[in-house]
Design goal:
The protein has 8 helices and no strands. With 215 residues, the protein is an all-alpha fold. It folds into 2 domains: 65 residues, no CATH class; 100 residues.
């Protein structure tokens, strides 16, 4: 490379990259620019050129390592499976909370009607406790607001993962088989310990449990 003069082809690639700064360069574009820079290093290399070559080599190694580490996280599974499943679970929480609150309010209203027929001071004491129950049921609104914030955060993460996958180009991410096996084993162990309530339509129904017990 002579001084600070760039080859026309390399200059054109850099100018195109600068025009598209709003979108991240994918791995293929970066590799192409790095290859162009290296191929332009002809003749005796100056100390500055040698340092540039080393920096470019480190950059390429860093990018490759980042691709492997990100692939081990299975970002496509996070985007396509885990985030939608988490959203469904949160929707189920909202639905179950609303149903439970409705049942509590119905029972509280019945207690209030019964209290009207009771003598004082018992009636007043019951009404006071009924009022406390009504006030406590405001938790449903607060819970809904907080869950909405969590869903918004999940959508933000999903968007960032999509952009990250786009940045690595159509070739996608390399997924080492060893990492897949290790991740699958870890997920199996975690799921074995997480036997919480199932979503509607999934899991084992009561009728099926009764049949199993009946033998």
């Amino acid at each position: 490379m002579n001084g600070n003069v760039l080859s026309p082809g390399l200059r054109e690639k850099i100018e195109e990259a600068q025009k598209d700064m709003q979108m991240p360069l994918d791995h293929g574009q970066i590799s192409e620019i790095v290859a162009s820079v290296i191929s332009s290093l002809e003749g005796d290399l100056s100390p500055a050129s040698i340092k540039l070559y080393g920096d470019l080599e480190n950059l390429a190694r860093y990018i490759q390592q980042a691709r492997v580490e990100i692939a081990a996280l299975h970002p496509e599974d996070i985007k396509n499976t885990h985030i939608p499943k988490a959203t469904d679970e949160l929707d189920a929480v909202v639905g179950a909370t609303a149903k439970a609150t409705e049942d509590i309010l119905d029972a509280t209203e019945a207690m209030e009607n019964i209290a009207a027929s009771l003598p004082q001071p018992v009636s007043g004491e019951v009404v006071a406790q009924v009022t406390r129950i009504y006030e406590a049921c405001n938790f449903q609104d607060i819970t809904g607001q907080r869950i909405t914030k969590v869903v918004g955060t999940l959508k933000f993460i999903e968007n960032r993962i999509s952009r990250m996958l786009e940045a690595f180009g159509p070739g996608g991410l390399p997924v080492p088989r060893e990492e897949i096996a290790a991740c699958a084993d870890g997920m199996a162990e975690q799921e074995a310990l997480m036997n919480g309530p199932q979503l509607p339509g999934s899991g084992v129904g009561q009728d099926e449990i009764d049949r199993l017990l009946a033998g």
